[in-house]
Amino acid sequence: MIADEQDRTVARLRHELGAMDVHAHVDQVDRMLRRVHTRRREQRQHTVQIVAALAVVLIAVAGAFVVSWRQAEPDLATPAAPVVEWPMRGNLVGDMALHERAEALWRGAGENGPTGPVRTIYAGKRVDRSASMVVIAMVAPMDGGRSRVAFVTSAVSIHGVADETKLFLRAVTTAEPGQRAIGFIAAKPASGDEELRGGGAVGFTLATPGATAIKFRSSTYDMEFEEEQPIEPDGVVWLVGQTGMAAWNSTVQVAALAPIAVRLAPALTDPDVESVTLTTVGQTTKAIGDVRPGDLIVTAEGLVGVAGADGTVDTGLTGLSSIGTVQIARSSIPGNLVERAGVLTFEATGPGELHPGNRVVLANGDLVINLGRLGQDRLAVERLVDPNTVTTAMRVRQR
Amino acid sequence: MREDLDFDGFVRERYDQLLRYAVMLTGRRWDAEEVLQEALVRCLKRWRKVPADNAVAYARKAIYHEFLRSAKRKPLVTLDEIAGQLDLEDFAGAVVAREHVLAVLQILPPRQRAAVVARFWLDLTEAQTAVELGCSVGTVKSLTSRGLAKVRETWKAGAVEHATVVTSPGRRWA
């Protein structure tokens, strides 16, 4: 290259590179930071799981010499004991004053409180850099082998301080007969909770005695998330997940002959979630259970429909604007779902670039529920839940 | 905890600068954000060991290595392909898409592109560029020379053809 031509090229390069400007809005930086912290948390968890898995393999190999004559894995074959019969576990089981305070709190919780005897099945403290908390899990027997379950906790701390002197009722739920795990997810901080670094949800799962691992699954807004997590010796798996993880989009499974997804309770500060049964006759889908008009009927994968009179579920996705904002999950590009020549289509009403595979969600404050996914043409929307195939679901109601 | 706070503060302060570097390497903001995210995760992993006075260079290196990793998965594109993906409204004094500096950079192989950006945007010396890219000074000279030659040829050809590519008005970078 001739020297002056090279000089001109260099000068033009310097000029044009210097003139190029790229700016990010502060929200975009915040979103990036949240994603970075979430990815890092996931990497840490993954590392812990690998170490735990190696330990399990070593123990299993060693144990095989001792128990090689045994034909079946007891955990897989043994039906789960009723929740009310689970042993008391946790590193605070000896603190009777703590149990009494927790029980008094639950009993004073009005319609969320128990009737009859109450038993503590877990009392423990987790101290960790990401989230520290005290949890007391209590059960009260109900009719039909079911149990009322309450989780009294301290506030969440990100500074390693779980103050067991300041407790409150975090969540209540009902455990079905044979249920192999109980737990809750707090999708957003309650009053007094410190927000996780980079945002996110906290949760707690207590598994049936003898179980060794749970499979936690969430369809939260920007990723399919499914991973097996080892259960700690006291029966617990603490959950620290990304923003958006919530009771209405997450389940756990404990290894069993027929794994059944267990619903986690929402925190009392999150929208209310209860199980419902769906029946479809002809073109009509009905939700059976504690259902009111306006309730959202969902599975952990996404929206089934909106409950109307008599539990009838409107399974159409084109009239949701009165309930929340239809938008792309990650980029928050707003839009509408419309039928175009019989095809469910996303019409953007705001700026932004759509990509095949983008998830379309219904957002109402912290409540974000999957609707579908953009196809290759970036317009047609593939629905994530087929209402005709769902028989058990959840109803979600803003409190 | 402190290091997390420091890390967040660093990212907030330097985000535009790091993103711009990633855009120059990848050519598209969408790809740049992906590369930047993975690079920042790597930085966060070793944040305690990152010297405070050299954090930007450390982050740039992480971006460069992440860019090389991502580039292995993507074929080189033609000038017309990359030009069609640009939105010129974002850049002051933009020329036609095929001659835009981002489009021209995209036809260079990844290491040549990084060398050109390091020398003529970051204004690093050949020795500093060698440290930045983890190669010898001789390699930097060779990469820069070949990169410059390709850029010059492309611009020269563009000036002859007066080619104009109209980009999609719907595409936005921000």
Automatic annotation (TrEMBL), chain A:
The species this protein was found in: Actinokineospora xionganensis
Protein name, per record: DUF5666 domain-containing protein
Highest rank taxon of the organism: Bacteria
Transmembrane segments: 48-69
Keyword line: Membrane, Transmembrane, Transmembrane helix
Automatic annotation (TrEMBL), chain B:
UniProt keyword list: DNA-binding, Sigma factor, Transcription, Transcription regulation
DNA-binding is among the record's keywords: yes
Pfam families per record: Sigma70_r2 (PF04542), Sigma70_r4_2 (PF08281)
InterPro entries: RNA_pol_sigma-70-like, RNA_pol_sigma-70_dom, RNA_pol_sigma70_r2, RNA_pol_sigma70_r4_t2, RNA_pol_sigma_r2, RNA_pol_sigma_r3/r4-like, WH-like_DNA-bd_sf
Domain RNA polymerase sigma factor 70 region 4 type residue range list: 101-150
Domain RNA polymerase sigma-70 region: 11-73
UniProt cross-references to CDD domains, sorted A to Z: Sigma70_r4
Similarity comment text for this entry: Belongs to the sigma-70 factor family. ECF subfamily.
Family matches, as NCBIfam families: sigma70-ECF
PANTHER family the UniProt entry points to: ECF RNA POLYMERASE SIGMA FACTOR SIGM (PTHR43133:SF50), RNA POLYMERASE ECF-TYPE SIGMA FACTO (PTHR43133)
Protein name per Swiss-Prot or TrEMBL: SigE family RNA polymerase sigma factor
Organism: Actinokineospora xionganensis
Lineage: Bacteria, Bacillati, Actinomycetota, Actinomycetes, Pseudonocardiales
